[in-house]
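Example 377.
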Amino acid sequence: MAVDHILAELKALAARPLAEATAPPKGLYHAPEILAREQEKVFAKGWLCAGREDEIPAPGDYMTYELGPQPVILVRGKDGAVRAHANTCRHRMMRLVEGHGNTSRFTCPYHAWTYGIDGRLAAAPHMERTNCFDRDKLGLASVRCEIYQGWIYLTLDSDAPPVAVQLASLTPVIERYGQEHYRTIFTEEHVWDTNWKCLTENFMESYHLPVAHRETVGANFTVAENEFGEVGEDEDFAFQYFTKTEGAPVGRAHPANDRLEGDWRHTSVMPTVFPSHMYVLAPDHLWYLSLQPDGVGRTRIRYGAALAPEVIDSADDSHALIAEKKAFLDKVQVEDRHVVEGIFRGAGSPLATSGPLSWMEQENHQFARYLARRLCD
Ligand code: FES
Ligand SMILES: [Fe+2]
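Predicted structure in complex with fe (ii) ion:
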């Protein structure tokens, strides 16, 4: 299908009400030209989530992240602030550092140019005969980095409005949970064989919970209590609420939780920050995915989880508790991987056509409208 035709179909879909909406045209998931447009108009513009602030709690703690084509170092400064530097040496552009750790400086493995954690060039050997060497002008390039509710967001777009502005109407809903105090229990990187939008759309709808996840997060889930947050037409996020019935192993406030009251004690909020940061924020835990495309049929996933502080503090054996929570979420991941890789293969088949959406897929339609706003102009 020609790209113009795919985009025209997407635009027409975005204009329809939910009751008249289908899933997007299948070409949206498979056309390389669509991916190129997404890289330019979605991923180079939006805020992407690089993880959680508590992964680098102490001065000198750092971790790396691939922001599209730009490798980034995230580091906690001596002043306590998190900064993002380009992970590319100012000499001959070598990558400075991999993984995560704690350091007082970054020394390039190629010729040992050495940078402070503030990004300034501190030393460079054998440059005394070079007239155009000016140490003060050779600091690491900085990348826009903002902290919002414990999340680290990055963008390459100097014009993007601040995260807290973009998510202003979400803040009063989620701040009651105190998620910035939740403690990260793991962060992992995965690559799945699917289009990134199959994963975003899958995470955003609870329609599949009682079916694909009947043995995990679909249990103790009441369809009648699945509600959607009110979001303005042009906002770049969506969210929903769901509840967990009594006896549910996850999703209910610990007795020592004094932040949440009434129904909030068994209610979760599930925000998706477009394009690709999505999470479940529950009274006792959170878990998230942050996605980037790596080809039309490959998606890089940062996957992690955190527990409310009282949940960890009251555990007899916190290692066993963390292992148990992770095993549960890993099982959910296996269930999701099966469907999102299956959808991608299905969308590439000649007889496939996208069908009508349920009311439970309201956010998928909001996402289609977001894509139309970004891709169709
Ligand atoms: S490329 Fe880094 S010191 Fe030469
Ligand atoms: Fe799922």
